[in-house]
C-alpha cells in the first residue's frame, strides 16, 4: 500500500502508565502544553463516577455500566478492562485513536500496564513511558494528601501500584516523578528524540 510504512507521515502512539497517585495526569498535562509535537490526548471511557473537578468528555467519557458493555460488544474498544477489582471498567475507544493517528497526531494514551500490554502488540513502534514516584511510601503519602480515597480504596490502589511497579520493565522509558517540571522536561525530550530519529 503506497506510503503505508512511512513513520513520518502517520502519527505515533504514546502510551504512558504508572501507579495511581504518581502524579501522572498532571505530568501528562504539562507535556501536552510544552511539547511542540502534535500531541492528542486520548479520552478513555470509564464506569467510575467523576471525581470533583472532572469533566465528562475531557477527563473521561463517564458511561453507565450498561452503555460501557454495549460498546464493548460493539467492538468499540481497542482495549478495556476492570481496574482495581471493584467493578470499575476503563477502556480506550478505538475510533478517536485511529482517526488521530491517520491525521498524523501523536495520540497519547494514559492507561494501566495491562492496557499497554493489550495495545502495544498492535502498535509495535509505540513509545511506552512508565512514570512512578519512587517508593511505595512516597506513593502512599501522595494518595493520602489527595484525600479522594477511602481506606479500602487506598489499600487496593497501593496493592495495584506495587503490582504495576513490578512490570515497569515492559516499557521503553522510565521517568521518576520527583519534580513535576523535571518529569515534564524529561518526557518532552524523549518525544523530541523519537521525532528527530524518525525525521
Ligand atoms: P483513575 O481512576 O485514577 O483515573 O485511573 C485508574 C487507573 O486506570 C489508572 O492506572 C489509569 O492509568 C487507568 N486507566 C485509565 N484509563 C484507562 C483505559 O482506557 N484503559 C486501561 N486499561 N486503563 C485505564
State Rg.
17 Å
The end-to-end span amounts to: 21 Å
Report the order of strands and helices: EHEEEHEEHEHEHHEH
Give a short account of the largest sheet: 5 strands, parallel
Instruction: Please report the total strand number as a whole number.
Output: 9
What count of helical segments does DSSP give? 7
Strand content: 15-25%
Bound molecules: guanosine-5'-monophosphate
What's the shape?
globular
Helix share, percent: 40-55%
Mean pLDDT: 90
Order of adjacent strands in the largest pleated sheet = 2-7-1-8-9
Q: Give the uncertain stretches in residue-range form.
A: 1-8
Structural class: alpha/beta
Kindly list the characteristics that best describe this protein.
199 residues, alpha/beta, five-stranded parallel sheet, four-stranded mixed sheet, 9 strands, disordered N terminus, binds guanosine-5'-monophosphate
List the helices and strands and how they pair.
Elements: E1 13-17, H1 24-34, E2 39-41, E3 45-46, E4 61-62, H2 65-73, E5 77-83, E6 88-93, H3 94-102, E7 106-110, H4 113-119, E8 127-132, H5 136-146, H6 151-165, E9 173-176, H7 180-198
Helix pairs in contact: 1-7, 5-6
Bound molecules: guanosine-5'-monophosphate.
Structure notes:
Helices cover 41% and strands 20% of the residues. The protein has helices at 24-34, 65-73, 94-102, 113-119, 136-146, 151-165, 180-198; strands at 13-17, 39-41, 45-46, 61-62, 77-83, 88-93, 106-110, 127-132, 173-176. Strands 2-7-1-8-9 form a five-stranded parallel beta sheet, with helices on both faces. The chain has a four-stranded mixed beta sheet with strand order 4-3-6-5. Helix 1 crosses helix 7 (180-198) and helix 5 runs antiparallel to helix 6 (151-165). The longest helix has 19 residues, at 180-198. The protein is globular and about 50 Å long. Bound molecules: guanosine-5'-monophosphate (5GP).
